[in-house]
Write a structure and sequence with these properties.
heterodimer, A: mainly alpha, 3 helices, 6% strand, B: mainly alpha, 2 domains, three-stranded antiparallel β-sheet, 13 helices, 49% helix, elongated
Chain lengths: 81, 265
């Protein structure tokens, strides 16, 4: 076991002694509700009725501008689409 | 008349938006014309699957808005009908699709936001499993720990984005105040974790990313630490390994017994 190996092995073993509460801190983002309830195939009657719309939605050429939090995201390598 | 297989094929093509006049002729059209009957099915498939995508990719929807998302999702749906019945598993190809979706070309980070949503979705639907704790390793000699090849706990994943998608995720949460994100703030490495009751992600450094990527490829902890040092000479294996243990990022050792340490080269 060379010096580097010993140093790494010692460092890894030292991790076991660190207090878990200290190490768990940080900017962890909890993502509650990632899986939404009711993600199933049975839509409400209202949604099913929406399916009877006479308009087809195949053509999405009408979309021009996304309207969400992207308004708040600026700079970077933005190029016109 | 159609053979059943042809009928089903024609129906699937109709769902994809192709004109199927032969199919229309085969459908009863009394009170409601045949074409309208068929459209009900098409719209229902589109709406149900677009809704499933919205549930799986909530951050993408927050970024582009509901209307834009719906149109984008519908386009994906007609091009990628599900191949399996579980809706939470639908959408694996959506991030890649977004990357090539022309109307979203002005949002170059959007595909990575979708990758984050997808990774969180996968993590959330993974079994919680038994995690490795510091106590599990306490009986091992230092060299034994260095020789271990660990695996991430189920649902665990790492990925890099050139964009600050962690902050984009934050401002896209409901009830967030009007903060502005500068894409020039740079990229981020994220570790995605399945936790007891939810999925979560945490930012990691470039060296930690190299360490975890090596672990994922089956390297021993020693080799993984070497990979970390190559990225950053100041990499601290103690801090990183301790933090990852505290986060319960690793799966428990199989059979509760540590594999023997690898031989010194």
């Amino acid at each position: 076991m060379n010096t580097t190996r010993i140093a790494i092995a010692t460092a890894l073993a030292a991790a076991l002694a660190l207090p878990a509460t200290v190490q768990a801190q940080g900017n962890m983002e909890k993502c509650y509700g990632v899986a939404k309830a009711g993600k199933n195939d049975c839509q409400t009657a209202k949604s099913s009725c929406a399916g009877t719309s006479k308009t087809d939605h195949q053509n999405d050429a009408w979309i021009s501008v996304p309207k969400g939090t992207c308004d708040k995201i600026v700079g970077g390598k933005l190029t016109a689409g | 008349m159609f053979a059943l297989r042809d009928l089903q094929g024609a129906f699937a093509n109709h769902i994809r938006g192709e004109d199927q006049s032969r199919l229309e002729a085969a459908v009863v059209g009394d009170a409601i014309p045949a074409a309208a009957r068929l459209r009900v099915y098409r719209h229902h498939v589109e709406q149900s699957l677009a809704a499933a995508l919205a549930a799986t990719f909530p951050t993408v929807q927050a970024v582009v808005g509901e209307e834009f998302f719906r149109a984008m999702a519908r386009r994906y749906v007609v091009e990628h009908l599900p191949r399996q019945p579980v809706l939470t598993e639908y959408g694996a190809g959506f991030p890649e699709f977004i990357a090539g979706y022309e109307p979203a070309a002005s949002l170059p980070y959007l595909a990575d936001v979708a990758r984050l949503d997808w990774a969180l979705n996968l993590a959330f639907h993974s079994p919680v499993g038994v995690r490795l704790t510091a106590a599990d390793l306490s009986s091992l000699p230092a060299e034994g720990i260095a020789g271990l090849s660990l695996t991430l706990a189920p649902g665990g994943a790492v990925f890099h984005s050139d964009y600050p998608i962690d902050r984009i995720w934050q401002i896209s949460q409901p009830g967030t105040a009007g903060e502005t994100i500068d894409l020039d703030a740079g990229g981020v490495n994220l570790l995605i974790l399945r936790r007891e009751d939810d999925a979560a992600f945490v930012g990691i450094s470039d060296a930690e990313m190299a360490f975890l990527s090596a672990v994922q490829q089956g390297s021993t902890l020693e080799s993984a630490a070497q990979a970390g040092f190559q990225v950053d000479g100041a990499f601290n294996p103690s801090t990183t390994f301790g933090r990852l243990l505290a986060l319960q990022a690793f799966a428990a050792l199989q059979h509760g017994v540590a594999k023997s340490a690898s031989k010194a080269p």
